Amino acid sequence: MLKDHSINKDDVKNFVDAFYSKVRAHEALGPVFNEYIGNNWDNHHKKLYGFWETYLLRNKAYTGDPFAVHSHLKLQNEHFDAWLHLFNLTVDELLQGEIARTAKRTGSLFVHSFKKRLGLTVPN
């Protein structure tokens, strides 16, 4: 488990790798992402490292529009719910303190925003 003061790029990389290994193995999420990404997971992970460094390390390593990248994947509520469950599980395994709270808050905000923009059911 990582301490707040010790998180760095390698920690973010380990977090992303652990989380997306769960996503790839998930019965509903795996096929969606594997079909889109194919054998290009290394390149996708590089983008994800930058994305999560931006939010967890506040270093602006990512520029782009994550919604545009995912909007055509035909994701449904159950995909987002599974994604958030796996994400929070990985946070609980690897992060703690304020950085864990920041990660969970960010993940929840993204799921809520994506669902809303896609016209999916968003709880009040």
Task: Give a structural overview.
The chain has 6 helices and no strands. The protein has 124 residues and is mainly alpha-helical. It has one domain: Globins (Globin-like). It starts with 8 loop residues before the first helix and ends in a 7-residue tail after the last helix.
Write the layout of secondary structure elements.
Layout: H1 9-25, H2 29-37, H3 41-56, H4 66-70, H5 77-94, H6 97-117
Helix pairs in contact: 1-2, 1-3, 1-5, 5-6
Keywords:
124 residues; mainly alpha; Globin-like; globular
What's the quick description here?
The protein is mainly alpha-helical.
- The name of the CATH topology is Globin-like
SSE run = HHHHHH
What is the percentage of strand-forming residues?
A: under 5%
Note poorly predicted spans. Answer: none
Strand count, sense and barrel status of the largest sheet are: none
H/I helix tally:
6
Q: Using the alpha-carbon principal axes, give the shape.
A: globular
Portion of residues within helices: 55-70%
Give the second-level CATH assignment, the architecture. Orthogonal Bundle
Q: What is the rounded distance between the termini? A: 32 Å
| Overall radius of gyration | 14 Å
> By CATH's scheme, which homologous superfamily applies?
Globins
**SS-based class:** mainly alpha
Mean pLDDT: 86
Supply the CATH class: Mainly Alpha
Strand runs, count: 0
- Our count of domains comes out at 1
